[in-house]
Amino acid sequence: MKKLVILGMAALLTVGCKGYLEEDTTGLLYGGNVLSTQDGLESALTGAYRGLGNQWTYGFLHPSANAATIGSDDVTTHPASNKADWREFDQFNVSTTNQRSGAVYNGCYKAIQGANNVINNYAKTVGTKATIDIIAGEAFFIRGFSYYWLTRFYGNIPLVTAGEYSADLLTIKKSTPAEVYALIVEDLKKAETMLPNTRRDPGRPNAGSAKAFLADVYLTMAGWPLKQTDKYDLAAAKAKEVIDNRATYGFALMPTFAEVFANDPAVAIIPESVFQINGFTGGSGTANATYGNTTMPGEEGGWDDMFAELNFFKNFPEGPRKDATFRTQFGLGATTIPWQNSLTKHPYYKKWYIKGNIVTSSISLPSVMMRYPHVLTIYAEAKARGTGGPDQAAYDALNQVRLRGLPAGAKALAPGDGLTAAQFADAVVQERAWEFACERTRWFDLIRLEQVEAANAAKSPDDLQPIKPITKANYWFTLPYTDTSINPNL
Amino acid sequence: MDVGLEMEFLNGRLHIEADYFKKNTTDLLLNVAIPSYAGGGTQARNVGEIENKGFEFSIGGSPVVTGGFRWETNLNFSTLANKVISLGGLPRLGQGTGVGAGMSTTNEFMLIPGEPLGSYWGLKYLGTWKPNEADAAAKQGRVPGDPHYQDLNGDNSITTDDFQIIGRAFPKATGGWNNTFSYKGLTLNVFFNGVFGVDKLNYTRAAALSGSGDARQFILSEIRDYYRPGNETSDVPAFTKTYQPFTQSSRFLEDGSFVRLKNVSLSYNVPAGLMHNKATVRVFASATNLLTFTKYKGPDPESARVGSNTDTAIGIDYGSYPNAKQYTLGINLGF
């Protein structure tokens, strides 16, 4: 079994004294020299992946992205303890020095910098064209993926396409979401044509991954803030392409929900994984901390970082999915206590328990950034909101996800049930809330559909409340102070 | 520039030395931060100019020389004022310590032209919101008992825009006082040193009192004074659901001035005649850090710093190991 081990590649930024020193950049991951060879290009690409996964520092291998998205109604955090930076998100009071959103910001820009380096140089690389195209395709994917996270978090952001540092970057102005999305779409369109149907390693994208993310991007563009509703049709068509060719891309809906979250470190990739960032305990800062401690209660040696909101849990439809989603009895030994008697008095997310309930924060498991049922629901919702309303395929897509989560014998939804197109679309959104609970998905749904206020109004009074009334200003975070304090134009 | 004066009186029994100095350092090599979107990290650049000026004063002599008894003493005292003159066009430049673990959210120090090096950057803590301030607190989404920080720009939201210079990490003055008393074979040495007019950012206390970083509980006895009905005068915040602590605030900035009995030692040279052979014998007892006079709440106002221990980022106490009190007993034998 091959595992993608992302090695840290130190991109050495050197400031030369021109005229005093002739630099030989051979061996550096910088400058035109190294990128003229295929091996050099490949190393630069590996460095780009590193931005997405650096345990505790930046990227997605620790629960920073989870923390930054708990303004949704599925996840909350401890009302006291050392969770001030988590509460800032749940209570809509995010400071510009918050290190959680900051970790995503830093990681995405690291990845972008690496990807820019590949993208700006691959045309000049000497080697096997087919392989070079794949390397470049992965770079386009990484850049599109990273900017997608950034603009959904921050809205207006610096749009950097240069791979090398220059003083001009210190005074760059912000770009609008429309400009950022234009680049994201362009990048993912290139990625879908340049990437192979089979991924090179579990932690890399294939053409299907690019298409799936493009569908998701279109769905988001159709909602707030751009509200380009013509994108619903594009989202549906792109998602359909992935669904129809799922076997080609190696995507499949697993038979039971519990299997999806078996979280067995011996399994490198599950069939539902559309794109994942691999964690690996053998490297330095490469293990994954989004499992284990972070979602376990103090009673089990956990950190109480994130757990279920009370009304979300209460309203969650009974069935195998609910059973596999939540942990409601705490204790790793013979005696257990119900969540109501625990210190935080909340059910927890069993989803992120490691197989065998190992208590650790470093494990060789991937951060799955999109699951195949996500694509099914993109199709169902986009079709319903687009031209013509939901067709039978949209119903089939929703039913696949829905029925797997419900008790055996649950009735499938059918066009004859009398749902309007809007009601059907809302049902899909609700289904996504259940299916992707605590998977960094709900927050973005609430934003694009402008439902953040309504969802938070329905919170249990026993959960953390927004510190001030939620407004559109809370939909985006303010850019990190580390950068705004340097660049006056941000 | 250095102007000095040196005087000696009474056959050398009293000497006085005074100096005034002013020195400007240019082309300082400082680490200038690069935005994360441009790669992050820092770039070493020759920027700026710093001015240092101060007095040095020393007085000493032998006030008592009588019979076999002799007291020699020396007192020195110096002041230092430094100021950033320019940062090569930059309006300001942050310098951090990299404490991490959820403690430092941004640079603790800000270099600003006209201000000294080691200027702490943070929020000004105004105590807890009091019951009669409930309306003002509510505008910020807080309730009485929550920490009250100065809202510098008046936008009813506490952010990094409200950060300001809250203290100085460079002492205004330092001094030392050394005394030697001798009588026949007996010698007593007493040495005091002192640091005056300095602020220390006590992150150790902050971690133990705000539920930040790796400390998840409040673990200092100070917490017993927390704000609650009947104890509204307390500035130790209440346990509320709107509690948002900032460790980088004047709440955890303390006066780090101290006077310390750094060393005291007593030794006795046993008279040669008492020994049968020609051996020399000296017995001694000494103690270091025996007494400290300070208002600082941490274990040691003098303890080492953390992070980038450079001139531009000093004075933070985060779990730094205190200087030990040491007692030494000994015998020197010479053959």
Automatic annotation (TrEMBL), chain A:
Its main location: membrane. Gene3D superfamilies: 1.25.40.390. It is found in: Cell outer membrane. Coiled coil: none annotated. Keywords: Cell outer membrane, Membrane, Signal. InterPro entries: SusD-like_N, SusD_RagB_dom, TPR-like_helical_dom_sf. Residues 341-454 form the RagB/SusD domain. One of its GO terms (cellular component) is cell outer membrane. It comes from the Bacteria. Pfam families: SusD-like_3, SusD_RagB. The keyword Transcription regulation does not apply. Residues 81-219 form the SusD-like N-terminal domain. The keyword Signal applies. Belongs to the SusD family. This is RagB/SusD family nutrient uptake outer membrane protein. It comes from Spirosoma telluris.
